[in-house]
């Protein structure tokens, strides 16, 4: 009789362990997302933006901290005052300060 009791106890223990394993939440691993296509830019990353030839959209896209209004202000200044003679001339435009100029100095050129 003791062996019957022992076997039923072992059966109950194994059954509860089996149920615990089945009911446990599964660990989901993060899937690595691979981009389907990469955007190819028209210019290489090392190319500089010409202040005298770039349009407002190019200025806005390529320069840090330059939005639509500042890009249009740069183009309007160029149209009103002629071609830029130096990169520092950007400081004459309202809304462009020394910090913004220094952030973008490596990306700018005057031709």
Shape: rod-shaped
Radius of gyration in whole Å, from Cα?
33 Å
Number of helices: 4
Average residue pLDDT: 84
GO molecular function, one term: DNA binding
Pfam families: HHH_3
Signal peptide: 1-23
Organism: Pseudomonas brassicacearum
Describe this entry's structure for a reader.
- This protein has 111 residues and is mostly helical.
- 45% of the residues lie in helices and 4% in strands.
- The protein is built from four helices and two strands.
- The chain has helices spanning 2-23, 56-62, 68-81, 98-104, and strands at residues 49-50, 108-109.
- Strands 1-2 form a two-stranded parallel sheet.
- It is rod-shaped, with a radius of gyration of 33 Å.
- The termini are far apart.
- 10% of the residues are buried.
Keywords:
mainly alpha, DNA binding, DNA-binding, single chain, Competence_ComEA_HhH, 4 helices, 111 residues, Endo/Exo/Phosphatase_dom_1, RuvA_2-like
Summarize the model shown.
The protein is mainly alpha-helical. It has helices at residues 2-23, 56-62, 68-81, 98-104, and strands at 49-50, 108-109.
Topology:
Layout: H1 2-23, E1 49-50, H2 56-62, H3 68-81, H4 98-104, E2 108-109
Parallel strand pairs: 1-2
Organism: Pseudomonas brassicacearum
GO biological process, one term: protein secretion by the type II secretion system
Keywords: DNA-binding, Signal
């Amino acid at each position: 009789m003791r062996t019957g009791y022992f076997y039923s106890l072992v059966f109950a223990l194994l059954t509860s362990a089996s149920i615990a394993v089945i009911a446990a939440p599964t660990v989901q691993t993060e899937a690595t997302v691979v981009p389907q296509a990469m955007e190819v830019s028209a210019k290489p990353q090392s190319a500089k933006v010409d202040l005298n030839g770039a349009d407002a959209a190019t200025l806005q896209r390529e320069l840090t901290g330059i939005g639509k209004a500042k890009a249009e202000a740069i183009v309007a200044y160029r149209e009103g005052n002629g071609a830029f003679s130096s990169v520092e001339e950007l400081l004459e435009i309202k809304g462009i300060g020394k910090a913004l100029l220094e952030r973008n100095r490596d990306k700018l050129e005057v031709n």
